[in-house]
Design a protein that fits this description.
The chain has helices at 28-42, 79-89, 147-157, 208-220, 228-235, and strands at residues 2-10, 53-54, 63-73, 94-102, 114-122, 159-162, 177-187, 194-201, 250-256. By secondary structure, the chain is α+β, with helices and mostly antiparallel strands.
Length: 257
């Protein structure tokens, strides 16, 4: 078997998320697997499913700049041909930006050691129409956030913690402990009013990034204190954390191995 690692970018606005589903073919994984199956047929290896494994199962509406995936073929194909073949048949909202041959044991999700997600928040005076599908526009009384308070809270998220209180579904029979390497909050120099929150960790639970973002936003609005992060960790109770920020402001930026 020949294993191929590919980097995929997509605008998730009109898709039902990464993971394939039985009631729709409008998923990123579904689109990729359909084309991977067609590619196998061109080599005379048809009639069998080709699994495409993604590094992260992004939700409906979530975007990716650097999603990583892998799949296997029984017959060899040049990486450049594989990339060209996928992009020929993929919808414009999905692009394969790189393909390379990988070790047969490589698995996009299981081998990942670090993932970086970015959440975009727009707090400018006037709505930026070009960001409407790629940033969250919170309804603030004052068009500003206390970024210093948010940064103080973000420091409390860094490290090894049980993030049960920051996820929608705690995995059954699996640990909710994750390591956050960094949380960086910055203001864009290019787009006035755009605030980005970038999370880097060894893995994330279901909705964890969006709930951490919602919690930081509530701190930035003065609805809770930075110290409340510690209370959430102690309680491990989802109800203690902030709201789940909408999916369209979230982007998977990169995956490291």
């Amino acid at each position: 078997m020949y294993n191929y690692k590919m980097t995929v970018s997509y605008d998730g606005s009109n898709f039902r998320g990464w993971q394939k589903q039985g009631n729709t073919d409008n998923t990123i994984q579904g689109k990729l697997e359909s084309i991977a199956g067609s590619l196998a047929e061109t080599f005379g290896v048809g009639g069998e499913a080709v699994d495409v494994n993604g590094a992260g199962r992004t939700d409906a509406g979530v975007h990716a700049v650097g999603q990583t995936a892998n799949f296997k073929l029984r017959k060899y194909a040049e990486a450049s041909y594989v990339k060209e073949y996928f992009n020929k048949y993929l919808p414009e909202a999905i692009r394969v930006v790189a393909v390379e041959e990988a070790d047969e044991r490589f698995h996009a999700r299981l081998c990942a050691v670090k993932k970086t997600y970015r959440y975009n928040i727009f707090v400018g005076e006037e709505m930026n129409v070009f960001l409407r599908k790629y940033a969250y526009f919170p309804d603030l009384k004052e068009k500003s956030l206390d970024l210093d308070a948010m940064r103080q809270a973000a420091e409390r998220l860094v490290g090894i913690h049980d993030f049960s209180g920051f996820c929608t579904k705690v995995p059954k029979n699996k640990s909710a402990v994750r390591k956050i390497y960094s949380v960086n909050i910055s203001e864009s120099d290019l787009v006035k009013g755009l605030v980005t929150v970038e999370f880097c960790g060894n893995g994330f639970l279901y909705n964890q990034v969006r709930i951490m973002t919602g919690t930081l936003l509530e701190i930035g609005e003065g609805k809770r204190t930075a110290e409340s992060i510690g209370d959430i960790f102690k309680a491990n109770d989802r109800a203690m954390a902030g709201f789940t920020a909408p999916p369209y402001g979230l982007m998977l930026m990169s995956v490291e191995y």
